[in-house]
């Protein structure tokens, strides 16, 4: 499958990560560039342990120094006498610096451990940047050779980057807004995400329930693959309470609670109440991974009645309108300092909210699973929904409640007594 087609997301058709290189000055043997990574994806962030950026030099370039980031390896710099470069590798690999580094190592929008928010959730935190001084390179627009074969991990697989392309130089505005300056040269690299490249199995699943049916539609069996069935933790076992079980591993490998679906994340959609002009849904997100906290999580749902959301009680909400004529998609995310952190598996490993929606009497119905979402995404990955024939069905006839009938009889007698 073509990587571009695999990367297309119908709910965020223009979403991408753009990496911009601005050459800000020439040096004796190269240039100094400001590198800015902008996440233009509406609901897919880069979570801990952050991004990793790599590329291949076109010639024999070296990195003399970096501010706001560092390469993971220096490589063989033995041929240099005196000043030793920061990195001499043909294929350098760069990571962000951690928060709290000394001020002289910081650069604007740096030092967040590689965590980058989604554009739709927090535009001010959707940028990461660093400065790099490149040597043994060209010293003019005509002699500089663009780096090649860019790779981006965010933090795992999934991103495919296109070739670097020269674009019009970036224009800067001075602090007093009275003077414009511009980069000496600018090139862009565009990276897009594909869930098929990220993992062969889904990373989340969805379950359903409703007030009009006592049955619960669970996540499908082995929804996220059962290859780790022998390495999971039973929720009530001693291992689940063992000290250090929540310590993340360097390879970010999960440690899941034993479930029939074996997913790290389950989203439950419950149709809770039905009013004359409104109806209410309860949404709960549960984390079954003992080694993962989800910071700044996002939940995207597609449902035809999301065009009439009246109130969201415990989440923040933002409608997503990828196509102007259709407003059926929305993004839920945690309130800052309240529930924007989804804790690891355990008593605190869930977040929940209720949503009040206004009915459109021309289209509203509980029949044929209409009350349940068409698509659900968690942190940018599509979740596996149950098969349609397993949805909670609307009974053909409701059971008669004897208390209700007796109440109606008493009310009728009282009414007759009053008018007589």
UniProtKB/TrEMBL annotation:
<feature type="domain" description="COBRA C-terminal">
    <location>
        <begin position="203"/>
        <end position="392"/>
    </location>
</feature>
<dbReference type="InterPro" id="IPR006918">
    <property type="entry name" value="COBRA_pln"/>
</dbReference>
<dbReference type="InterPro" id="IPR056900">
    <property type="entry name" value="COB_C"/>
</dbReference>
<dbReference type="Pfam" id="PF04833">
    <property type="entry name" value="COBRA"/>
</dbReference>
<keyword id="KW-0732">Signal</keyword>
<keyword id="KW-0449">Lipoprotein</keyword>
<dbReference type="GO" id="GO:0098552">
    <property type="term" value="C:side of membrane"/>
</dbReference>
<comment type="similarity">
    <text>Belongs to the COBRA family.</text>
</comment>
<keyword id="KW-0472">Membrane</keyword>
<dbReference type="GO" id="GO:0052324">
    <property type="term" value="P:plant-type cell wall cellulose biosynthetic process"/>
</dbReference>
<keyword id="KW-0325">Glycoprotein</keyword>
<dbReference type="GO" id="GO:0010215">
    <property type="term" value="P:cellulose microfibril organization"/>
</dbReference>
<keyword id="KW-1133">Transmembrane helix</keyword>
<dbReference type="Pfam" id="PF25079">
    <property type="entry name" value="COB_C"/>
</dbReference>
<feature type="transmembrane region" description="Helical">
    <location>
        <begin position="400"/>
        <end position="419"/>
    </location>
</feature>
<dbReference type="GO" id="GO:0005886">
    <property type="term" value="C:plasma membrane"/>
</dbReference>
<protein>
    <recommendedName>
        <fullName>COBRA-like protein</fullName>
    </recommendedName>
</protein>
<keyword id="KW-0812">Transmembrane</keyword>
<keyword id="KW-0336">GPI-anchor</keyword>
């Amino acid at each position: 499958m073509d990587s571009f087609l695999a990367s297309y997301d119908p709910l965020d058709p223009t979403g991408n990560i753009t990496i911009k290189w601005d050459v800000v000055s020439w040096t004796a043997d190269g240039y100094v560039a400001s590198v800015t990574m902008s996440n233009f994806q509406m609901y897919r962030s880069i979570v801990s342990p952050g991004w990793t950026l790599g590329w291949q030099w076109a010639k024999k370039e070296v990195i003399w120094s970096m501010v706001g980031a560092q390469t993971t390896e220096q490589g063989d710099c033995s041929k240099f006498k005196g000043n030793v470069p920061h990195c001499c590798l043909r294929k350098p690999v760069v990571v962000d610096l951690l928060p709290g580094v000394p001020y002289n190592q910081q650069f604007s929008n740096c030092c967040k451990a590689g965590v980058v928010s989604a554009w739709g959730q927090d535009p001010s935190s959707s940028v990461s940047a660093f400065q790099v001084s490149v040597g043994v390179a060209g010293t003019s627009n005509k002699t500089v050779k663009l780096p090649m074969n860019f790779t981006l991990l965010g933090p795992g697989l999934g991103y495919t980057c296109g070739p670097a392309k020269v674009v019009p130089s970036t224009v800067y505005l001075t602090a007093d807004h009275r003077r414009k300056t511009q980069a000496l040269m600018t090139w862009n690299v565009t990276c897009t995400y594909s869930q098929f490249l990220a993992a062969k199995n889904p990373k989340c699943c969805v379950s359903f329930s409703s007030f009009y049916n006592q049955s619960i539609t669970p996540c499908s069996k082995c929804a996220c693959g059962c290859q780790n069935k022998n390495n999971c933790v039973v929720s009530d076992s001693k291992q689940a309470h063992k000290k250090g079980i929540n310590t993340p591993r360097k390879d970010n490998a999960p440690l899941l609670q034993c479930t029939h679906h074996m997913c790290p994340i389950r989203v439950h959609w419950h149709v809770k109440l039905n009013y004359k002009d409104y109806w209410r849904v309860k949404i709960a997100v549960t984390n079954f991974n003992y080694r993962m906290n989800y910071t700044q999580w996002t939940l995207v749902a597609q449902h035809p009645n999301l065009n009439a959301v009246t109130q969201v009680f415990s989440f923040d909400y933002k409608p997503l309108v990828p196509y102007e004529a259709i407003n059926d998609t929305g993004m839920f995310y945690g309130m800052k300092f309240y529930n924007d952190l989804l804790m690891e598996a355990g008593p605190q490993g869930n977040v929940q909210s209720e949503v009040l929606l206004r009915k459109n009497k021309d289209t509203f119905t509980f029949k044929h699973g209409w009350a349940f979402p068409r698509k659900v995404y968690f942190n940018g990955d599509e979740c596996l929904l149950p098969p349609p024939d397993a949805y909670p069905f609307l009974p053909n006839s409701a059971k008669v409640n004897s208390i209700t009938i007796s109440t109606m009889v008493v009310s009728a007698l009282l009414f007759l007594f009053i008018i007589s």
